[in-house]
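Entry for the shared binder. Reason: the reviewer on the internal report wants the predicted structure included alongside the sequence.
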Amino acid sequence: MPNKLPSEENRLKQVRTVCRRNKRTIAALLLLLLAMGCTPMLLHKLDEQFGVADKTRYDAPPKPVADAPEYWRDVRPVLEQRCTVCHGCYDAPCQQNLTSWDGIVRGASSEQVYANHLRAVEPTRLFIDAQLPSEWRDKKFHPVLNERNNVREANLQGSVLYRVLDLKRKNPLPNMEVLNPKIFDFSLDRKQTCPTIENMPAFEKDHAQWGMPFGLPALSSKEFATIESWLAAGSPAAEKPALPVALQKQIAQWEMFFNGNSLKQQLVNRYLYEHLYLAHLYFDEVRTTNRYFFRLVRSTTPPGEPIAEIATRRPYDAPNAVTFWYRLRLETGSIIEKTHMPYVLNGARKAKWIEWFLDVDYAVNALPSYAPEEAGNPFIAFQALPVQARYRFLLDEAQFVIDTFIKGPVCRGQVALGVIEDHFWVFFVDPDRMPPEETAEFLAQESKNLRLPAEDESNAGILDWLKYSRLQKAYLGAKAHALQKVIGNSNGLTLDFVWDGDASNDNAALTVFRHSDSASVVKGMVGQHPETAWLISYGLLERIYYLLAAGFDVYGSLGHQLNTRLYMDFLRMEGEANFLALLPRYARKPTRDSWYRGASDNVKQYLYGEHFNFSAETDVVYRTDKPKQELYRLITARIGKNVSQEFSLTKEPSKNIHTMVNRLQNIRGAGLSVFPQNSILRVDDGKKSRYFTLLNNSSYSNISQLLQADERRRPNEDYLTVVPGIIGAYPNAFFIVTEDSAPAFVSSLKKMKTEEDYKALADTFAMRRTNPDFWRFSDDLHSYYEKQKPIASGILDYNRFENR
């Protein structure tokens, strides 16, 4: 029977059915068509009003304008205090980096750096991957300044930056303590809205409360007027004043050193560059009014000419230039805490490097290639350099080296930090207990087993980590055998294996605090006795650096990041295993099992067992039944005066405040699970303010698994560490107490069990983001921090500041 054509009525029913089933799809299509239609209309309107956009307008920085605010003197301080606190790192919303004039004219992008990329994406590093605004337009960055006619109205109404600041001025924060989370989403993984100038009318209509600073008080009238006048004048740039002559001489001398001609000098300088490329280098032998920091870069131009930096993903990638020079490039961006790693260059430093690397008699017959499997393995690439020299170099500024994988290529540390405890101590193997020839021979023999995931570059496969698991097992077996040979006829390791810092190096003991997906490393044995500790050898320290700093690509694929994460498990366990070897043999397995509750037996074997079978009894003499705590005390005594006291609470002069801090330090338990990870407490005594950092250390049954972190939480074991001063780049909360109200603050925190309890505490003591005095608190805090640490301080980041 032939099919009948549907009647008009049936056709109508079918259409209605399809429409009902696809209502959302049709609505989305209509919105898309509307947007596609509106955008050209708005673009045409802007073109009619202000002329056609010219992406090259800011390629040549506009010269200063008479009577207009000056960038360095007037504008930059406002941006640093109000804008850079959220727009300074890779994870700044819309990649809008406001640390420099170059960052402003670069513009914004809707592409997110921190996303799970199946394939590596092109890097977008400010000052490196493009130099001109027009080049950033080609990389899909849209302008936030007016790129049309240079007239006042166009410079304001054609500027996204002005419009979002003006939006906040017209729509200040609502009068409430906690902002409506349905309107204000502060989660790091929130969907980003990055309006172009063509989309600003819709943005202003749909998100009237999203003016900038987002979810924070508006700029003052004076601050707004400064930015408005500067933008209206065409956002003129001003050249930074010339470097002091004495500083220029230092640069010339150091660039000469970094560009020595012999093969030995070239190999040494390649090693130095690969370890210092993240540093903010400075000179302490030249007194200057302002702070000056420099980056060590590779340039196609020689000293004396403008720097033309060579952009590569990693410092050991091929420079793609027949000839290049190492240059010191002035850091012109604002100094932000998250990426600030100062490293001093002076005569004493140079003398050490010459003694360790150049005055030693050894031959360099050829330079290593830049092939990933060779350049990405420091035990192959730098095999010709003395092991003692390399290790001494790393130990000399060990905090900096550890800092590079905490502060370095990442602004969100899920990769490196999901595999470390919230609080642990770090010690180092004494270089004098490493027989130079035997150590060099061992590392050369094991170089293939010491291969790192970065040799697979930025598009590694997800299952590539399995081969590194096999390599690590082979290496641990060889290491246990070699370690037994080192101790010889003695029973086992002694305290002499722990580096004491030599004469005066306070890098011998470090403390790491993790704050969710960020972390900090400081000198000293700070806080209570932690659950775990690492004892790091040269081979381990070098691998950590090349895994998480030199070899890590934040723009790499999901496979690259996963392999890095899983390999870091091996390195953490190796550091813990070294520490276990100092404990009595009877205590090693119970200690290991307490660190890895619920972990598989296979995982535990990497620390003590089948994979790392080092069973020699220790030569450390123990006198108590709590050997781990006793070992901490013995190491403290061995390092002695080289244990930094910078964050010691014993220096607090006020007895009342000292009592308060001790009471806070005794708080433990599940109630802390609702307290912020990293908060700053200001204590006012009527004469001055003191600042303390409250670090909430979360406990887990183990940290050897990728997923199910909540199931591994042990909130009853959480504890609070309190330190004087500032630790951490991302504060989550601010609190204010007086000496009189401090006992009430401690009591409230001690009794806290629920979110409602925290709200009650915050209602009384917190400086919330909605408080009209928020910026005054922020300014006072930064002023204090800069005075306390004139070299090491940087601008804090409020992207993780809570709304509670």
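Summary line for the report: The chain has five domains: 1-50, 53-232, 245-337, 368-642, 649-788.
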